[in-house]
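Workshop exercise sheet. Pairs work together: one partner reads the sequence aloud, the other fills in the structure field after running the prediction. Swap roles for the next sheet.
Pair: D.N. / O.F.
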Amino acid sequence: MIAIMIMVVLVIYLSFVFTVSKWVYKKPEKVSSKWLASIGTAVFLLFVPMADNIVGEVYFKYLCATQGGIKVYQTVKLSNEYWNKYGTPIFIDSKGNIDTNILMDFNFTRENDSDFITIFRIKKELYQVGYKESGSVLGERVIFFYYGGWLVNSTGMHVMGSHCPSNKDISLANLMNDIFIKEN
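Structure field:
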């Protein structure tokens, strides 16, 4: 049923684009100007419904490149009691989860900003590690989520999103391994 409604709206909109382009074609005197004006109008009217998706995708990629990922501001050397006999940290389990009870001197915060950029449906997740006492940040992980423009979300059964950076690059275990290093 939804597919039929989408097809009807699409046919109506394409008829509108064709009618307006035909009307614009009649305005200029020169034939070359008629074609240029007509095609320009059609391209513009076809672009308008997808503009927020195109601009949103470009801005999402910009945010990913400039702000996304793991950033370490300061490393901390931890004594041997924080590491097992194989040299891996005991505060990270086999699934990559962090045991914050072992690292009592540190603060772990997660913020989800669902309204980061509402016009482009971009959300931001920030995870920070810092000292409890001073409040200084040792490192952070930033992930951006993008859910597409209005046309993409209005015509699909499921709202699909993408995120950056990739999961393998930004696990919490990677952040912890970059911040906390074994003391020799």
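Discussion prompt: The beta strands are 69-72, 76-78, 106-117, 122-131, 137-146, 162-164, 180-182. What would you look at next?
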